[in-house]
Write a structure and sequence with these properties.
Distance between the termini: 47 Å
Number of helices: 2
Structural class: mainly beta
Strand order of the largest sheet: 1-2-5-4-3-6
Shape: elongated
Order of helices and strands: EEEEEHEHEEEEEE
Radius of gyration: 20 Å
Strand content: 35-45%
Length: about 180
C-alpha cells in the first residue's frame, strides 16, 4: 500500500468472525454503509501497522453492523486473524457531503476564535446528540466548552485552514 495508514479514513472495524465460512462482522464507523455494496476490494489496516488490499466477495447489513466475506478467508480460524482490523478508504473515496456539512474528523484540531480574534481553543471532539452537533473545544488550561455547530454561531468554518470563527451569543462562553 503506497499511502500511509494515517492518511486513510476508517469506515469500519472488524469485531469478530461470524459463522464458520470466514465471514466477519464489523462495526460501522460511517454514515454511508451502502458504500459497501459497490466495493470489490477493501483496504485493511492491522493494529500492528500491516496493511493490505483484499478482495471483497460480499457485504450485507446485519443488525446495525456489516457482514463481510473477504477473498482467501474461508474458515473461522482465518477470519479470526481479521479481529480489530480497520477497513479504510482514501480521502478521495469519501462520500461528498452537502454544503455546510462536515466530517467530524475534519473539524478536530480546528482553532476556534471569535470574530474579534479572541482564541477560544481547539476542537478536540464532536458530540452528535441533538439538533446541532456540539464542538468540544479545549483551551490551553484544559477547560472544555461545548459550542453548537450552527451557522448562526459558527459564522466561518474553514476545515482546509483548520479554523472556525464564532459569534457566540451572550453567556455561551461563560458556561
Amino acid at each position: 500500500m503506497a499511502e500511509p495508514l494515517d492518511d486513510l479514513i476508517t469506515i469500519a472495524r472488524i469485531a469478530r468472525p461470524q459463522g464458520i465460512r470466514g465471514e466477519v462482522i464489523a462495526d460501522l464507523l460511517t454514515d454511508f454503509p451502502e458504500r459497501f455494496a459497490k466495493l470489490t476490494e477493501l483496504r485493511l489496516g492491522w493494529p500492528n501497522g500491516k496493511a493490505a488490499i483484499i478482495g471483497l466477495e460480499r457485504a450485507r447489513p446485519h443488525l446495525g453492523r456489516i457482514l463481510l466475506k473477504l477473498k482467501g478467508y474461508d474458515s473461522r480460524d482465518a477470519a479470526e486473524t481479521l479481529r480489530d482490523v480497520r477497513v479504510l478508504v482514501m480521502r478521495e473515496q469519501l462520500v461528498a457531503l452537502p454544503a455546510d456539512s462536515y466530517y467530524d474528523f475534519d473539524l478536530v484540531d480546528c482553532v476556534v476564535s471569535t470574530a474579534a480574534g479572541l482564541v477560544i481553543g481547539k476542537v478536540v471532539g464532536v458530540q452528535n446528540f441533538g439538533a446541532a452537533p456540539l464542538l468540544v473545544v479545549r483551551d490551553d488550561e484544559q477547560r472544555e466548552r461545548l459550542i453548537p455547530l450552527a451557522s448562526s454561531i459558527c459564522t466561518e468554518v474553514d476545515v482546509a485552514r483548520k479554523r472556525i470563527v464564532i459569534e457566540p451569543p451572550e453567556g455561551l462562553l461563560d458556561l
